[in-house]
Amino acid sequence: MSGRPLDVLEEALDTPVTVRLKDGTGLFGVLAGYDQHMNVVLEPTDVDGSTDDEVEDTTIIRGDNVVRINA
């Protein structure tokens, strides 16, 4: 795995991820897309077991709110 952020996001496409936001909120869903500003699109997932909030609909998160993305 490359250390470049956009390469890591590319490898994580269509897999469940947790996105941690500046306010401490964690959102869990399938990474459906991203752009060069690290804006991300999450889709609902069928995977259970996350302690974070699962997205219920397609969710777009502005990149400047993202602190961490865990695949």
TrEMBL record:
Gene Ontology cellular component list: ribonucleoprotein complex
Any one Gene Ontology molecular-function term assigned to this protein's record: RNA binding
One Pfam family recorded for the sequence: LSM
SMART domains: Sm
Record-linked SUPFAM superfamilies: Sm-like ribonucleoproteins
Keyword terms, alphabetized: Ribonucleoprotein
Keyword ATP-binding: no
Residues covered by the Sm domain: 4-71
Keyword flag Ribonucleoprotein: yes
Domain of life assignment: Archaea
This protein's name: Like-Sm ribonucleoprotein core
